[in-house]
Amino acid sequence: MTIKIEIWSDIACPWCYIGKHRFESGLARFAHRDQVEVIWRSYQLDPDAPRTTDKTLNEVLAEKHGMSLAQATVLNAQLTATAANEGLDYHFERTRYSNSFDAHRLIQFARGRGRQGEMEERLFKAYFSEGKAIGDKDTLVELAVDVGLDAGEAGAVLMSDTHADDVRADIARGAGLGIRGVPFFVIDGRYGVSGAQLPEAFQQVLRQVWTETHPQVNLGDPQDGHVCNSDSCNV
Q1: 192-214 pLDDT, tens per residue?
Q2: Beta 184-187 vs 191-194: how paired, if at all?
Q3: Going by fewer Cβ within 10 Å, which terminus of the chain is more open, N or C?
Q4: Rounded to whole angstroms, what are the CA distances from 11 to 69, 119, 206, 218?
């Protein structure tokens, strides 16, 4: 029996990228990691964001909260340092504020080709490290090719409405579950873990769920079998 983990995440969310790496670090330490199924679910922090702009996330943060660009840069620098501890290279000064809807459609497409995790990772890196416009369809096709997807197929998906309903269904289901922030991890449909927790937290909950779903079987009273204890041997 596998453990199913659904992760609601947005490519435009810096904590989701950190959470992805922390989760994967915890999963790597889990003895039964080969029996864990991971599914990435769509979520949008700002569904009204423009497809792409020349504004950086430093500028957007300053405008949103009425602070100076210098103050916003300092705040994002703190998050950059946190990301660096996870081996991630953030560059908010060149991250271009974009709408993530088409990126989510591409992730849905990649899932059907067995490349969902790779696509998620490539999009995060493109956005937060490389300053690529994840709302630009030509850019998305290039990123799809980077993870081994066919350019023609990816382009056809992005030029149509394919997987749009899947993205909306994920968002609606997340809302139904009461998810108001990401990353959010739903484990076997029973447990919810909110935020970019440390790897140890993910490892702990995985062990707990495994124990609950794979109870130890008692094959009988030790007194009825051939056993030894500290006092004697039962023969």
Answers
A1: 999 999 999 999 999 999 999 88
A2: antiparallel
A3: C
A4: 23, 10, 24, 46
